[in-house]
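Take the subject:
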Amino acid sequence: MTTPIIQPSISVKTLSESPNLKSIPSNYVNSDIYPFDFIASKPHDYSNSIPTVDFSLLTSIDPHQRSQAINNLNKACQEWGFFMVVNHGIQESLIKKVIDGTQGFFNLREEEKKEFEGKHVLDPIRYGTSFNTSKEKAFFWRDYLKVFVHPKFHSPSKPDRYSDIMWEYCEKVREVTKVLLGGLSQGLGLEECYLEKTLEMKSGFQIFIANYYPCCPQPELALGMPPHSDHGLLTLIIQNQVGGLQVQHQGKWIHVNALPNSLLVNTGDHLEVIQLIDYLNCYLIGKGSIPHLLIPLN
């Protein structure tokens, strides 16, 4: 049983906190696109098979270790299009500050968050809900914040110090991304700087996206995001420990159980265009009673 239709004029967070909410509004039911084959078949848990790339080996002065790490990186892109990065050098305390600061943003009063509602897809700061409410027949159980952080840095002015934390984190992520692109270039037999220069990374867009998935009374009917591939080169993701992210590999949807303090990396459409990887789908399922916070950076 679902509740009557509610237009997304309020955030999903506010909706989820409504008193006596026992079921989701009918226009948030996404059962028509939910991957029921995954639910029905309950395939083996392949999450432990998701490739892991040791970033410290990519920067090693030992040529054998670095060569092996480059091979592992390229194999992960070719076979999965998705991998985890460990020993990346971004302090765990900074990642926690980003997650806490982002939670603080979504905890702002509704009228404060609406100050950052964008009207156009190219607005440098956009706060909103669902995915594309102007076209969707069924809405997604998600609030979001999208911010352009490069080549010109933008940030919401609230909460306090969030802008400073976001800037520091985005700079660190750019450093990691450069090394990953260098490894991909060398794995293709090219110069280390090839992808960075050819794809004009210095002047390219870098986007900080925060997705908030509130508690849901009927997670089996709701979907946080539709199955999709990512634009751009690489999407680097951090999240709280609630989980919910899944990726498609060899026709099966697989739970992503992230290692502590790891970065999740999804290869984007621009890399597919230059034939580095196969097409990858990913989506996010509802997780019921615990809110999920996921922060991808393109």
